[in-house]
User: Fold this.
Amino acid sequence: MSKFLELNPKIDGALAFVDASSTFDAYEAVGFKKLGDSIPSSVNMKAPTLSGAQWWAYARNVMTLSPVDTKNIKPEVPEGVLRLGGTFVLDGDQVVYAWADAVPGDIPDVDQVLQSVGVSL
Assistant:
């Protein structure tokens, strides 16, 4: 989390949450799937708009930010690599926006996420 927050200084660390367990119970509780669990009918695949420096930072940091248990490396694909994520916006205990990735790189429309919190571009 500290590396993620270092790379994303606009995010208030007090509002961030990480499930550091290796069981992925939190992922399952919100309905996130694993790669290969289902075949999506449609996805919103698009590369993010990043500068050259941002792409370089991504390439340098992707492994340290990936959910892989480095203490128990096994010859198979790590569970954390197969897990799909998502995006949530909370207002107190209320979920005002939810998105579950269908495949890696399937991202929500940023305008819709911002609109869910009353911000428009």
User: Anything to note?
Assistant: The radius of gyration is 16 Å. The CA atoms of residues 24 and 112 lie 27 Å apart. The longest helix spans residues 52-65.
